[in-house]
Specification:
alpha+beta; His-Me finger endonuclease fold; two-stranded antiparallel ribbon; 2 helices; 8% strand; elongated
């Protein structure tokens, strides 16, 4: 890091050495604690999940400021909620287009401001 060049960030494939190092960095930073419910997690037992705060599909990056540790339960719940939100947004869009109405825009965690909403 002393060279002044930004470090190349790993792709979240779970297997590369760079990804494992980044995951460990976030575990240490977050104190081996779920950042949602506060439960302690451990490395290697499947309880610690590295979560993109703003999902990659919504433009979130794989950088420390967009990553956090969640426990298995919180990460699974978050994923299910995001899936339901996306399904509702798609249904609203299909309905509005079928009825000839204007598109319905749904704010996301990463794009909450009018003018940069996604649908």
């Amino acid at each position: 890091m002393g060279s002044g060049r930004p470090r190349k960030l790993p792709v979240s494939n779970g297997g590369s050495q760079a990804w494992k190092e980044l995951r460990l960095e976030i575990l240490i930073r977050d104190g081996y604690t779920c950042q949602h419910c506060g439960i302690g997690v451990q490395e290697g037992d499947g309880s610690a999940h590295l979560d993109h705060i703003i999902p990659r599909v919504e433009g979130g990056s794989t950088t420390p400021d967009n990553l956090r540790i969640l426990c298995r339960t919180c990460n699974t719940t978050k994923g299910a909620m995001e899936g339901a939100k996306n399904a509702l947004a798609k249904r609203a869009l299909k309905t509005s287009e079928a009825e000839g109405a204007e598109k319905v825009f749904v704010p996301t965690e990463g794009n909450p401001e009018p003018g940069v909403w996604t649908f």
